[in-house]
Amino acid sequence: MRFRLTPNAVLWLVYTALLVVLLPHTAWAFARFEPVTNLGTITAWAAAFSFEAAIAALTHRLAKHIEKPPRYSAGIVWLRTFAYRYLNPYAAGLLAAVSVSGLANLAHAVEFGQGLAIFARYSVPPWLYSVGLGGILPVISLLFARVLSEVGETKQERDRELADAKQAEREAKREIARLRSELEQANLRFDAASDLFARLFAAEKRERILFARQKWPELPNKAIAMITESSPAYVSEVLSGDATILRQEAHSQ
Question: Which domain holds residue 220?
Answer without folding.
Answer: 202-253
